[in-house]
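Aim 2, interim progress: modelling of the xanthosine-5'-monophosphate-bound target.
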Amino acid sequence: MKSNIDSEKILILDFGSQYTQLIARRIREIGVFSEIVSHRISLKEIHKLNPKGIILSGGPESVYKKNTLKIDPNILNSNIPVLGICYGMQLIAQHFKGKVKTSNKSEFGNTQIKIFKGKIFKKITRKELNVWMSHGDKVTKLPKGFKRIASSKNCTIAAIESIKDKKFGLQFHPEVTHTDNGSKILEAFIKDICKCQAKWRAKNIVKKLVEEIRTKVGDKKVLLGISGGVDSSVAATLLHKAIGKNLECIFVDNGLLRKDEAKQVKKDLKNALGIKINFLNSENLFLKNLKGESDPETKRKIIGKTFIDVFLKEAKKLKKIEFLAQGTIYPDVIESSGIKGGKAHVIKSHHNVGGLPDYLKLPLVEPLNSLFKDEVRKIGFALGLPETLIGRHPFPGPGLAVRMLGEISKAKLDILREADHIFIDELIKAKLYDKVSQAFAVFLPVKSVGVVGDARRYEYVIALRAAETIDFMTARASKLSHDLLNKVSDRIINEIPKVSRVVYDISSKPPATIEWE
Ligand code: XMP
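Predicted structure of the complex, ligand included:
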């Protein structure tokens, strides 16, 4: 039986806004499936997708310019409810014969608006709201059949509605957290106007994904490489629920993992959930191939190539594999779809991850490719994965290699593993682990003098890195207290004889990156 939780969906037409993904996430949070498509989509294509409503994103263009991003006018003439945000509102206004002009006062940031009676504000009791504006153009004459439902000091027409046409426009951004009651506004559009029932919940999503996997792979065997990270673990659990013993997993211990990481994966996935995992201890091979190499890019390439060699050798031993599974998630699909700039029509699944599909030439199963990270976590919990696994900070594919400057050796990796473990342990004890986005130790191959007891110590330096970020594209160093940093430093120097000094990395990204290599 096919699940219907995504049969009620909202389409988001992307006009190049930096907030497009955020709109999609907010709608999912309200409990309705949302999908991002290019602004070039036609009404005919939209009918095939059968959405309950459409949201037009913001964008950097001006609607009155010649080569600007356009919308198929049939969409706005159709009976489908449409909410336009910023540029999207201006498109609606222009289509229905209103006027849009460059504002002599651009509004960026927090602004107060007054709200009047409007269907989209039904759930809001206040008359004034702080909202997030980001525009240079504004609607200066109301479009035909529309009513003004909000105004600000610099923008007398800050929101519009036409109940008859089922078209709505907001000059501000309800999707950003700086807008008061933004989710309530979106909810009114989705539930009251588009009449969605909001069934997009972890339990239902699991049911739907399991059904989809079963339909796609039938009784064939599927191979999945797992890393111990959230995405591949959730993918493994879902696949296991769907096809049981027909799932084969490979976990490669490359010797560049954190302390007890391989043991933990075994405990969480194999013992607790009964998932069959082929564990490969390839530490010696990786370290042999990395020996003598200190260039960051060459180290990454060696690790990538060794991984593929090991994975393929093992995959060949497994008989009758007909599908390759991957833990690709929705943001990866959006990023690689070329949707920005309007190249793609409807975004399609992509083929990623280190060239593996080309090597294996197997059809892909990507059960998470319509989910955002927070949704992957939620369904991970619903599937019974432990908090220790779901809430773990991201860990890069090349592992500790990108946190060990210079040449790599097992002895140095053991020092780094121990220092990293102490730092994370103290963060957990201080209840700060979930507050920082990523934290780890870095091994610096320089020696420095210290005194421990009465003895002189001339040993390595460990750097601590803790970053706070929303999207990992930009980040700030966490403002950890000196008390905590002192405690971590004392423990590292006392417990690890090969370390004489600990430093804290305070650089932001950009210009620095989160990892050191
Ligand atoms: P940077 O260092 O570029 O990292 O600021 C941003 C995020 O990406 C992770 N990262 C990687 N993840 N393979 C991965 O799977 C990699 O080669 C890689 N390099 C960086 C990093 O840990 C951070 O979360």
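The chain has a mean pLDDT of 92. The chain has three domains: 9-193, 202-390, 403-505.
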